[in-house]
């Protein structure tokens, strides 16, 4: 057995002893939370707002005739309806003059007033109130953005005995990853927060319009499903969009993604195996501190490092061939050499630039000195 084979055998025996005498414990705590909200409802409301604005700017009205029999002196206007009513109620005739003039004691008075209390307007009034309620509820449930949180905490403790040497390792690793999920489809688009703010301002503005204020004071009853298919609702494009929003909110189904995963356990699988292997690697790396290894050759330390690296590769992929390992090493060596060459060139350029700068400064100082001497 040559010296290299003897060294490999000793190293293998040492590793076997290292793992056989090892006691290790790996505790893992993970906490994952994901909130991916469906903001389609913002698109639907936002798309309908201009059509609601059209309706509120030009609300439909109808005329109300209020009929009242009053003393003739209190009558504001005598209409055809007043004359017909008097002819039907001759008891209100006080006197007929010789010339044929009729003097009534009382007469029908008709007051004509415009009213906003129509079914279509009550539909819009109810729709806007429902939209405000729906908007505030969804806003409180989703907030202004989707997000995820991913936290991990691992604690590894291990000890082993190698010949007369006692070895211990204690390691803690924590990681935290939190991020907002981008809901903007294209650059320059409004954020969800900006859209929510704008929509709220528009809905608040709707509440101060004449239609909303008038029907609120009248305490009109809210409209309920199913919506009557009046001519206005069927044929007016603004009301068609309004009904589409009504139907959307009535049949709304939440599509939010809410994920939670909290785990706390002692790992006994591949993760623990990797940490055990890392324990060995750290131990081997620290062997350089041993008094007996201070005189060890660089080639021997390099050989040990490469052996551990190859063992790790074989553990992760036992079917890998020698040629594939060689190709992998060759590729990495080329990449490292290229990176080092680029570093060398950058350093060289920095030094040359600095020398050139110093040379220019020296030349300028010399010229100034010469000019001063001449003067």
Could you give a short description of this structure?
This protein is 54% helix and 23% strand.
Keywords:
375 residues, alpha+beta, 2 domains, four-stranded antiparallel sheet, two-stranded antiparallel ribbon, 11 helices, 54% helix, elongated
Kindly describe this structure.
The mean pLDDT is 81. The chain has 2 domains: 233 residues, no CATH class; 51 residues, no CATH class. The two termini are 87 Å apart. A hairpin with a 5-residue loop joins β3 and β4. Helices cover 54% and strands 23% of the residues. The chain is of the alpha+beta class and 375 residues long. Strands 7-6-1-8 form a 4-stranded antiparallel sheet. The protein has a two-stranded antiparallel ribbon with strand order 2-5. Strands 3-4 form a two-stranded antiparallel sheet.
């Amino acid at each position: 057995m040559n010296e290299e084979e003897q060294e490999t055998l000793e190293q293998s025996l040492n590793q076997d002893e290292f793992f056989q005498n090892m006691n290790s414990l790996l505790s893992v705590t993970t906490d994952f939370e994901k909130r991916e909200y469906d903001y389609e409802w913002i698109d639907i409301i936002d798309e309908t707002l201009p059509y609601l604005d059209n309706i509120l700017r030009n609300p439909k009205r109808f005329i109300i005739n209020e009929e009242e029999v009053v003393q003739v002196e209190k009558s504001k206007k005598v209409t055809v309806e007043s004359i017909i009513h008097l002819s039907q109620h001759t008891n209100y005739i006080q006197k007929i003059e010789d010339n044929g003039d009729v003097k009534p004691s009382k007469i029908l008075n008709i007051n004509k007033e415009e009213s906003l209390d129509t079914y279509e307007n009550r539909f819009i009034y109810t729709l806007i109130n429902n939209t405000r309620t729906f908007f505030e509820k969804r806003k409180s449930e989703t907030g202004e953005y989707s997000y995820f949180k991913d936290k991990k905490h691992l604690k590894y403790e291990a000890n082993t005995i190698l010949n007369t040497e006692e070895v211990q390792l204690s390691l803690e690793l924590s990681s935290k990853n939190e991020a907002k999920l981008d809901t903007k489809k294209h650059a320059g688009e409004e954020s969800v927060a900006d859209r929510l703010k704008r929509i709220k301002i528009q809905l608040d503005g709707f509440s101060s319009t004449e239609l909303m204020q008038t029907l609120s004071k009248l305490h009109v009853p809210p409209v309920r499903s199913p919506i009557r298919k009046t001519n206005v609702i069927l044929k007016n494009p603004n009301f068609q969009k309004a009904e589409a929003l009504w139907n959307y909110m009535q049949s709304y189904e939440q599509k939010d993604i809410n994920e939670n995963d909290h785990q706390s356990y002692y790992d006994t699988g591949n993760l623990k195996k990797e940490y055990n292997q890392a324990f060995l690697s750290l131990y081997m790396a620290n062997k350089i501190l041993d008094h007996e290894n201070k005189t060890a050759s660089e080639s021997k330390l390099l050989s040990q490092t490469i052996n551990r690296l190859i063992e790790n590769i074989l553990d992760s992929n036992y079917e890998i061939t020698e040629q594939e390992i060689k190709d992998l090493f060759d590729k990495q060596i080329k990449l490292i050499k290229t990176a080092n060459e680029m570093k060398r060139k950058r350093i060289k350029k920095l030094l040359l630039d600095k020398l050139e700068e110093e040379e220019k400064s020296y030349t300028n100082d010399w010229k100034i000195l010469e000019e001063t001497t001449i003067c």
